[in-house]
Amino acid sequence: MNDIRGSYNRAAADYHAILRDYHRQDPFETGALEYFAALVEDGPVGDLGCGTGRITTYLDGRGMDVFGVDLTPGMIEVARREYPELRFEVGSLFDLDLKDGELAAALAWYSLVHTPREDLPAVFGELFRVLRPGGHLLHGFKVGAGSRHLSNGYGHDLDLDVYMYDVADVAGLLAGAGFAEVATLTRAALPGEKDAAQAALLVRKPATP
Q1: At what angle do helices 4-19 and 73-82 cross, to 10 degrees?
Q2: Confidence (pLDDT) at 163
Q3: pTM attached to this predicted model
């Protein structure tokens, strides 16, 4: 069973302590985020599946009007405590409390790793809905096939399924939702990493003709 809220409610504080500065250690992550930031135009940016807000504050530091949404109340509690100047809300990527075309850009940075492949089209459709024409989406995920069960992590008992996806398949699902490809960045798994290779797909909602 995949207990996302319960698992991350238990682990939220330690999750943040471990990962808060991860972007400083991984040029792949900072490279993808910087490219995304360079393309985003003025307007609200949603860090969707923001966790404890480490990327939200990173993008805020790049001058973006950014806010965070996450499924887990415990993660949002930590984000609000750590970054009180930013806005964070509890919400689901399947049903965002946002108007059609409200966002200038959106980020789904490893926030769908617990989502089975068959549910991705529904999420991508919702992300397409909330982006304005011309808006960009950056989606980060683990590359591979199948899933593994995570029963312990960040010093806590967990009950999480972690999914890996084929890059071409995800690109096809995003195209099926209406997105146009802008860039694809991948890297191989690093020595000692338990997970597979990583990928970042940058796509764009076509501008209105």
Answers
A1: 30
A2: 92
A3: 0.92
Count: domains in the chain: 1
Paired residues of 163 in beta bridges: 147
Rounded CA gap, 97 and 29, in Å? Answer: 28
Chunk the chain into consecutive blocks of 10 residues (it has 209) and report each block's average pLDDT, rounded to whole numbers: 74 79 81 95 94 94 96 94 96 96 97 95 98 97 88 76 94 98 91 79 90
Q: Domain with 58 in it: what CATH number?
A: 3.40.50.150
pLDDT for 193: 67
Contact 89, 73 (CB under 8 A): no
Beta carbons within 8 Å of 26's beta carbon, 6+ residues apart: none
Position 209 in a domain: no
8 Å CB contact between 53 and 88 = yes
- Check residue 209 and give its pLDDT: 58
181 Cβ neighbours under 8 A, 6+ residues apart:
171, 174, 175, 201, 202, 203, 204
SS3 label, residue 204? strand
Would residue 40 count as lying in a domain?
A: yes
User: CA 166, CA 170: separation in Å to the nearest integer?
Assistant: 6
**Encoded tokens for 83:** 């970054």
| Structural domain that includes position 20 | 4-204
